[in-house]
Amino acid sequence: MIAIQLNTDEFEYDIRSLVKAFYPDKEQYVHCDVSKVVQQKPPLKQPDRTLCVVMNPQDMHAYFLGEEENAVVVSTVAEDRTQRKNDVKRLLYTLLSRKTGMILPWGSLTGIRPTKLFTRALEEGRSDYEIMQQMKDSYLISEAKAKMGLAIAHKERELLSRLPEKDGYSLYIHIPFCPTTCLYCSFTSFPAKAYAEKMDAYVAALKRELTMYAEYLKNKELTTIYVGGGTPTTLSEQQFDDLFLHLQQSFDTSRVREFTVEAGRPDSITPEKLKVLRRHGVTRISINPQTMNDETLKVLGRRHTVAQTKDAFAMARDCGFDNINMDIILGLPNEGEEEVRTTLQEIEKLHPDSLTAHSLAIKHNSRLNLMKEQYSDLKYADAVFGMELAGESAAKMGMDPYYLYRQKQIAGNQENIGYAVPGKEGLYNILIMEERQSIFSIGAGAVTKVVKTPGQLYERIETVKDVNLYLARLEEMMHKKQDALVRAGLNV
Q1: Which helix (H) or strand (E) holds 50?
Q2: Share of the chain above pLDDT 90, in %
Q3: Element spanning 324, H or E
């Protein structure tokens, strides 16, 4: 356990996040000497060490209790809050790096959208050289990550320049059902077999939400549609047909640039479903193996085989899909260099149009975390090396990086990065990360993001996650979203 002693709660979250990056396996106990903070209960066990961070008007310093002589000190404190936050994180990074001997590739950055920093700097008219220096000096980002972040920011700006921002919007449709729940997954999902009798009612609820949104958005331009989950392809071909027919009847889809459906689990894909997707104008699908090693798939509880992944991919090509993404996860349990190379070699043979490489993040609500004692014998691969191999493999397939984001507790302090053949980039992925236009979402657990000024989130509206509650409280959820639409200046 790491005890963190603070004299202010101003940057408590950022400090905790950075400490977690250096000590991912350690529990944290935080104590703030300010009355407005609700004090946590004393730790149940003696901490391994106590980290002290003191921020005074004239200076700030960080040290481990009992090692005050090794304190890191900054003599002046900036008045600007953002600069002050960056100063304390850089101060803390320096101390923790000295203590552990670790160098984090993203330096003191703990946010999930690092490309926003690069994009903002480009919009301010700074040169590439100035941006690189700022990222390395202010955030201690490595040369390699700074180059990658800058390259992706340039790519994103190019792609976004072709899309409507002020009058454009996207739709997200959430299908929260899955054949099984994967070991690492923390998303809200419901077993498809147990909820089979409620799927028709769920599709009917989605149609009602679509009808409501269509009334408010009739004077706006629909840019992208994304159907995610869960596993959307747990729906039957009849349910897809019903849902997408209603979508096309309710909205003007003539200017949609991208219509994506996550066909994530190969064992849920059939030729009939793929034909329905094609008939309704779906332009992009994602077939996600996560790994191309059967033994790992068993450990993850995915209940499909590598052969099924290859068959599903071939079916999609036969149906005419020319924009197929594949997701992989690096740092999976019991996967070393050999297994990662096998996965990449098998994917290269299929040659998808884009590849999304995720670094494993062990989330709080995943079985991998909740049942950690049961899985204590699992070993984890080097996600850093795996990410390098994924980049090399993507380059072999003619792909360039086009978007990235980070997660809490991500393996190796790495990132999730999307690679694509030019012209096959996932536009929705960029839009949701960079918050350049509003994304109106429907379904249980779906989050609507209202953007009034490109790059700045105006309002976030969450929907209840439980399917039963969603069906029971649909009217309430719809009224909540209608109020938000009116506040954003969108009236019927």
Answers
A1: strand 49-55
A2: 62
A3: strand 324-330
Q: Is 267 helix (H, G, I), strand (E, B) or coil?
A: helix
Could you tell me which of 205, 203, 176 has the C-alpha nearest to residue 191? 176
Q: Which two tokens stand for residue 302?
A: 């995915």
Residues 6+ apart with CB under 8 A from 280: 240, 241, 244, 245, 247, 248
Q: State which H helix or E strand residue 244 sits in.
A: helix 237-250
- pLDDT tens for each residue of 281-327: 999 999 989 999 999 988 887 778 999 999 999 999 999 999 999 99
pLDDT (tens digit per residue) in 24-53? 878 888 888 754 444 455 555 788 889 999
CA angle at 445 for the pair 429 and 453, rounded to the nearest 5°: 50
CA 56 to each of CA 68, 79, 88: distance values in angstroms, whole numbers, following the listed order: 17, 12, 11
Lowest mean pLDDT among 24-28, 53-57, 400-404, 407-411: 407-411
Read off φ and ψ for residue 401, nearest 5 degrees.
Answer: -70, 140
d(CA 277, CA 280) in angstroms, rounded, equals: 5
Q: DSSP letters of 166-227?
A: SSEEEEEEEE-EESS--TT--S--EETTTTGGGHHHHHHHHHHHHHHHHHHSTTSEEEEEEE
